[in-house]
């Protein structure tokens, strides 16, 4: 499929999805929620109390992606969940959206790479079962987040990154994961491309 056709498929999906959502036939506004839930289901097959991280928490109550809420409500006190966020105001917004689940969320304020480096280095994070890298549309930054955590991804660990087809986010990590014999990858042609990689 050409890039042009691929973009068209993505747009049609988005339009169809929005219509179904507005008609009340789907309870989720964006594709992130079902994909994250599916990944968590996969993680639960091998880890009853997984460690989950995301970089970049919910920043807008109406954006519809809702990763922090989706993860916290699905885990619901099973395992550990850390969200790494640089902006105090976004943490405040996220805490308000996640009000029923904040007791299950560890908000780590500051630059994700610096904090991940510290926590992985100190073995506070010694295994990550699921990681959503969603902080900035900057392929080098996303790569560094992944690289900082790489040694604590174990067999069956899952990594999720959105906007990998046409944004900068996937520029370094997408070819790396796709060509690595240690990772099995799948790209959903929704929301500008969501990459899911599972460690073999
Ligand atoms: C796309 S939003 C995250 C959306 C969220 N995951 C969701 O599903 O609704 C990106 C977030 O990453 C944060 N961010 C940007 N640079 C960061 C960094 N270096 N470290 C941690 N968070 C960062 C932004 O402040 C913003 O809140």
Descriptive tags:
200 residues; alpha/beta; Rossmann fold; 7-stranded mixed beta sheet; 7 helices; binds S-adenosylmethionine
Explain the layout of strands and helices:
Layout: H1 3-22, H2 32-44, E1 51-55, H3 67-75, E2 80-85, H4 88-97, E3 106-109, H5 112-121, E4 128-133, H6 139-149, E5 153-161, H7 173-179, E6 183-188, E7 194-199
Helix pairs in contact: 2-3, 5-6
Bound molecules: S-adenosylmethionine.
S-adenosylmethionine binds next to β1 and β2.
What does this structure look like?
The chain has 200 residues and is of the alpha/beta class. It has one domain: 3-Layer(aba) Sandwich (Rossmann fold), CATH 3.40.50.150. It has a 7-stranded mixed β-sheet with strand order 3-2-1-4-5-7-6, sandwiched between helices. Helix 3 links the parallel strand 1 and strand 2. Helix 5 packs parallel to helix 6. The longest helix is centred in the N-terminal third of the chain and has 20 residues. It is globular, with a radius of gyration of 16 Å. The model has no long low-confidence stretch (mean pLDDT 96). S-adenosylmethionine (SAM) binds next to strand 1 and strand 2. S-adenosylmethionine binds next to strand 1 and strand 2.
